Amino acid sequence: MTKYLISFPGAAMNVPQEDFAEVGEAARTVIREAKLAGVYVFAGGINDAAPPLMVAADGAVSHQTYPQTQELNGGFCVLELPSQDAAIEWAAKIARACRCSQEVREFGYDPES
User: Fold this and answer.
1) Which of 49, 28, 43 is CA-nearest to residue 77?
2) Contacts of 67 (CB under 8 A, 6+ apart)
3) Got the DSSP string for 45-76?
4) In angstroms, what CA-CA distances link 91 with 70, 82, 105, 113?
5) What is this structure's pTM?
6) Residue 91 burial (CB count, 10 A)
7) Which residue of 7, 49, 65, 100 pairs with 12 in a disulfide if CB–CB is 3.0 to 4.6 A?
8) Is residue 100 helix, strand or coil?
């Protein structure tokens, strides 16, 4: 089984405020389905109110991020699935629930993770 990251940036979710509760419940329904199917690993959303911190190799901490990840926000889940096709099927469920496209990325295999 392979782990897949299914995610979207916050800006992709263009949902009217009055629909947020409905979209949130639809997304939680898909996550509950993933848990029941035994494929759920982890899910969540990046907290935009908590700015990122950069921790250097020497332990020094600064209030910054890599320029390439400044737009890393939104929601994500990690599912453990038998194939890329299965990941695409789950991404489609999440896309319908969240009303926005989802990006699918495969984690490299690590026998200790």
Assistant:
1) 43
2) none
3) E--TTS---EE-TTS-EES---GGGTT--SEE
4) 23, 14, 10, 22
5) 0.85
6) 20
7) 100
8) coil
pLDDT tens digits for range 13-45: 888 999 999 999 999 999 999 999 999 999 998
Start-to-end Cα distance in the chain: 12
Residue type at 13?
M
How many Cβ atoms are within 10 Å of 37's Cβ, its own excluded? 12
List, for residues 38-95, the tens digit of each pLDDT value.
999 999 988 888 888 999 999 999 998 888 776 777 889 999 999 999 999 999 999 9
Query: What are the CA-CA distances from residue 32 to residues 4, 12, 35, 57, 67 (Å)?
Result: 17, 23, 5, 38, 34
Query: Any idea which residue has 């848990």 for tokens?
Result: 35
